[in-house]
Amino acid sequence: MSARDPGSRGRHTTLFLLRNAPVLLFIVLLAAFGMMSGRFLTVTNFVNIFIQAAHIGIIAIGMTFVLLIGGIDLSIGANMYIVAAVLGLYLKDLPLVVSFPLVTLIGLAFGAVNAWFITRLRVAAFITTLSTLFVGRGIALYFSGNKMVGFSPEVLSLGRASYLGVPSAIWAFAIVFIVAFVTLSQTTFGRQIYAVGADADAAGKAGINVRRIVFSVYCIAGVCAAIGGLVSLSQVAVASSTFGFQKEFPVIAATVLGGTSLFGGRGGVLGTVFGAVLIQTVENGLVMTDADPYLYPLVISVIIFIAVFVDSTRTSILERLERRQIRVERA
Amino acid sequence: MDVNAAPFFTAQGLCKSFFGVQVLHDMAFSLRPGQVLGLVGENGSGKSTTMNIVGGVLPMDAGRMTIDGAEYRPRSPGEAEARGIAFIHQELNLFRNLSVAENLFIAGFPKLIKGLPFIDRAKVRARTQELLAAVDLDVAPNTPVSRLSQGERQLVEIAKALGANARIMIFDEPTTSLTTRETDRLFDIIGRLQRQGIAIIYISHILGDVMRLCDDIVVLRDGHLVGSAAKADMTIEKMITLMVGRTIDQMFPPRDPPVTLGGPVLEVRGLSQRGMVKDINLSLRAGEVLGISGLMGAGRSELARILFGMDPFESGEVSIGGTKVAALSPAACMDHGMAFLTEDRRAEGLMMEASIADNVALASLPKFGTTWARFIERTRLGDEVTRVSKAVQINARDLQRTLVKNLSGGNQQKAVIGKWLLHHPRVFILDEPTRGIDVGAKYEVYKIVNQLAAGGAGVLFISSEIEELTGMCDRILVMAHGEIRAEFPRTDFDREAILRAAMWHGLKESA
Amino acid sequence: MAPSGAAELARPRRSLAVRLLVSEYLVLALTAVYFVVMWLLVPAIATADTLLDILAAMMPLLVVSIGQTFVLIVAGIDLAAPSILAAASVVGASMMTGEGGFALFTGVPILVGIIAFLGMGLFIGLLNGICTTRLNMPPFIVTLSTMMFFSGFALFYTSALTDDGSSFGDLPSAFVAIGQGTVHGVPYSLGVAAVVMLVAHVTLSRTVFGQWLYAIGRNPRAAAISGVPVKRAVMWAFIISGLCGGVASILYTGRLETGTPVLGQRILLDIVGAAVIGGVSLFGGKGRVTWTLYGVLFLSVVDKGLQLLGLDLASVFAIKGLVILCAAVLDAVRHRLMLRG
């Protein structure tokens, strides 16, 4: 086995920096924005960042499950819009305790349709969810007649409500995160997701019901898209015909930024939360520092790029260092 | 262990056909508790089919299996496992991203509270420690599998089978990627399993191991059972005769060492790379077959990869065909007439989803595209591919249509060799060229190596099988711990001396 | 051998339907079926004008999808394609717009403009290529971030340099003709696309470089060991995709008569979808220019048919999605049929 050279303190420092690169990047950003705007480093502002990050974060948690098995779900934006349209158009008069679970079931059903095509008909996930993206949005646009959808006042007051001093969006974010975290790390189902993502064939041979796992993760992504959609519309209380449009990009970006691999088997929801909050922090910081709104996407994409670049460099350096060595060199 | 105990598992009249072609005829065998049954035969003789039927991977067309007298007809690997049959696959089915403990229980973890899905981590840890102790593996339960060596991973597989209360364990080529020490440890463990009354089915091409390990040996050929005897009534020569259906007088084609060797085609001076190899000096001459022996992990493959420009080196120099090559890369090495047959033909040697012709052509494409836009001369390329494929005797109906993944291991290896022959190498590095291929195909690979050397190429022949090296080479270098430790000319070949040189440092080295 | 002979006899002759299903012309056949059905519903679809319109409209998509095919063959993906269209469109148009174009002083603004289009494509393709091959980053993420960056860049550029902040108008008529003009009724754009298609087809099927791309897609490690310059070839695949984006942007911009940052904003999924429907694999090593052509033709005919039916946006979305899904299901079924041998 390899013996680390004792004399290379410099390399240790590099390693430490690399291991914690995303966090360091985060701290640098906080410091930079903090210096530029006095309003940035305040508790109120951080609460705001979390509220704004909540819906992307929740959907990205669902996406994490899908990416962990090596799949992808491009249809989440359409799913969000269906949920919004049905809630605003047909369930307006029901109390929220009834209508919210009902539309979450619609999200689940949407996910189940994806899952059915992927597991039963063996259509590639990319194509399946690409098609359901069109179909889903088309159906919802048909419902809404391409018009703005409004919601009952309770939706908005729920969005503004706080419980125990914590805003409702953050409650939703936290609950989804905790459930997802415990599921992935502390249940058989969660560990089997990692196994399927690493090698689906081997998982089948090991007696894991691969089809059930794959089916479930798309359902989870559907449910998370619905919940994320609800959190999002409770902030704004109206949904235009582009509600959720192209949300798949920031969601996938947040997930990958959090260290989840697109190839399956590696990652987790803690990182995803970090990724979602990081993106929102940048956006918030840009608002606070009165940057030109046209620059937002430029800055955010550069940050994502740097984070992923550092991550991939780190992975390859760590791989090289952890490689088995044959000889133990004596100095 | 009671040798006279009655069989608890029987299989009779097993038949299996694929696409109307019968690949298994009336296979029959039985197992007593604690018996080790060796299963030998060439690739495609029906060993894997038999084991896939027993392991629940394939359904049988006809026949009957029983366990303790009760009918056994598994429909899935899971069902086989539930009936106490565990399959230790050649390509180990462990999840590198999970810990050892998680791998052992991935099919179903013990629950913290009945009815709730939460894993009882403490119980998992305790049970894992128990199972790892049973196979003498001293690692923490939460070690990621990616950190384990190939041999350690195999022990984890065995622990997993123990955890599932297996009564029969099927080993498919378990030693192909193990070091000698790991192999010895594996055999110790198998002996221990045997004493616990677990029956073992042991499949291997390494007949010496089969003789050493097994109580009874079953030989298959072309899907037929052609021999079945207790160890006492079996010899390696007899096994080979049964396997190939004819007597092979020698396992190696005659090799008359050339009277005069040509000039050096590959010269290496003081080649070092930290943690890999140290101060390698060697000279390979035209027409020479130079063997490199050593234990797994002695640095043989690492040396080969550095020589072919796939891994970097820190100091030293390499001359190919008399020219010093400063920056080694596969392309640069190929330009100087070097070829390299990798030890991992699935991952690095072949495009499994492509045709034989595409695979054979791959390394030589620029030679057939010399015009301004590098259009490929397809007729000339096709003719050359056909010629080479004939020369290496690839058995396939249609070179353009047959996908490499549908070929046997031996034919796949010939396709890789064909790829390099088309390139007309002057220096050919072969890293474990006969791994996982059957006796007949091995013989053909040896013949090709001889032809190459006779044609004036220098061959660097890396192998773990000392017999193969002494049979094939003009000279053997022995590596240990990243250095060349000894050199034997053909006149001094001595199996024991070579092994001792290889172990010289290996004995002191700790795992 | 007796058993194998019996097997040959025992294998049933395949029906025409099954043979069509496993052939590479399936998508073409589906297009024809769809066309016939549409013809019955709206006879107008079969007029020469409509057909020419379909052809002219599909050419930019075809060119950019061909570029995508190169990247898909090496098992990559180029999500930046739409942003290449947009960025090239605004930068190129800003050179030659009558409202103070940067290159007006040169006297050959169209030439400079076209160079700017291609230059943007080349630059973004090169950037994607460098990041994937030299920095070892996954193509999905690299091109996702360049997509976000250059889409944003196009908007920023336009807002900073135009009065209304939305587009560059007043383009020279000779330039607009590239996208709109015809010779004897045949659109110029058809000629441009035909040349791109021919060159791409010959490159992929007949040259060493093309074979290298397939080899990289099938097994990059085996390709590298066999002397294939993997990094260089992958880099070129991205550059080709970028250049195709530049050419497609010329055609689109000419068609629309304005350089606009929203160009191509919604067609990313069409680009990748067309290639994949045609049979190009997302996992690399499998794809042909003709397959991409079939996929583009299919999507374009479907679009036009729905448009002629006078359906609203909602129905077009839903039906288009369903049609893609059906094509994908058929593809999955046929894949299983082929496995059965």
How is this structure best described in words?
The complex is a heterotrimer of chains A (331), B (511) and C (341). Chain A is mainly α. In chain A, a hairpin with a 2-residue loop joins strand 2 and strand 3 (166-167). In chain A, 73% of the residues lie in helices and 2% in strands. Chain B is an alpha/beta fold and 511 residues long. Chain B is 33% helix and 24% strand. In chain B, the strands form 4 sheets. Chain B has a 6-stranded mixed β-sheet with strand order 6-7-8-3-9-10, sandwiched between helices. In chain B, strands 16-17-18-13-19-20 form a 6-stranded mixed β-sheet, sandwiched between helices. A 4-stranded antiparallel β-sheet of chain B has the order 2-1-4-5, with helices on one face. Chain C is mainly α and 341 residues long. Chain C has one domain (27-35, 45-328): ABC transporter involved in vitamin B12 uptake, BtuC. Chain C has helices at residues 2-10, 16-22, 26-41, 48-73, 81-96, 109-133, 139-161, 173-180, 188-206, 208-218, 220-225, 230-256, 268-278, 289-308, 313-339, and strands at 182-183, 186-187. In chain C, a hairpin with a 2-residue loop joins strand 1 and strand 2 (186-187). Mean pLDDT of chain C is 86; it is low at 1-12. Chains A and C meet through helix 6, helix 12 and helix 14 of A and helix 7, helix 13 and helix 15 of C.
CATH topology of chain A: ABC transporter involved in vitamin B12 uptake, BtuC
Summarize the main sheet of chain B: 6 strands, mixed
Shape of chain A: globular
Q: How far apart, in Å, are the first and last alpha carbons of chain A?
A: 16 Å
Largest interface: A-C, 46 and 47 residues
CATH H-level homologous superfamily name of the largest domain in chain B: P-loop containing nucleotide triphosphate hydrolases
Uncertain segments of chain A of ≥5 residues (pLDDT<50)?
Answer: 1-7
Q: What is the CATH architecture term of chain A?
A: Orthogonal Bundle
Q: Report how far the terminal alpha carbons of chain B are from each other.
A: 32 Å
Helix/strand class of chain B: alpha/beta
In CATH's first tier, which class of chain A applies?
Answer: Mainly Alpha
Strand order of the largest sheet of chain B: 6-7-8-3-9-10
Tell me roughly what share of residues is in helical segments of chain A. over 70%
How many alpha or pi helices of chain A?
Answer: 14
Our Rg estimate of chain A from Cα atoms comes to 22 Å
Sum up the overall morphology of chain B in one term.
Answer: globular
Helical content of chain B (DSSP H or I, runs of 4+): 25-40%
> What fraction strand of chain B?
15-25%
